[in-house]
Specification:
The protein is an all-alpha fold and about 100 residues long. It has helices at about 1-40, 55-60, 65-75, 90-105.
């Protein structure tokens, strides 16, 4: 029983530490979205799917995340590569796609 309680306490500590570590990343993704993506994906300008518009995102999401990642990294239609922010790394672009999909799915 003591081992089980110790294991539960250890898992709780790990989960808490993981959540705390993930929070700054989530804040960074949201900030990057606001400064790089929001202008188009918040308004739907030039055909960009608006974040939260499930119908607009549905056919894109159906293509799968790898296709969405490639579109975000390489550009698609009127969207320039990396949303016009060449300083963004691939993993940052993927996190932005994941953020927008989560809000639109």
């Amino acid at each position: 029983m003591k081992k089980l309680l110790a294991l539960a306490a250890m898992l709780a500590a790990i989960t808490s530490a993981t959540s705390a570590a993930a929070a700054p990343d989530a804040a960074k993704v949201e900030k990057t979205y606001s400064t790089t993506c929001l202008a188009c994906h918040g308004t739907g300008i030039m055909g960009a799917p608006k974040v939260g518009d499930k119908a607009g995102w549905k056919p894109r999401i159906a293509k799968g995340k790898p296709a969405l990642y490639l579109s975000a990294i390489n550009g698609v239609k009127m969207m320039p590569p990396r949303g016009g922010n060449p300083g963004l790394k691939d993993d940052e672009m993927k996190a932005l796609v994941d953020y927008m999909v989560a809000k639109s799915n």
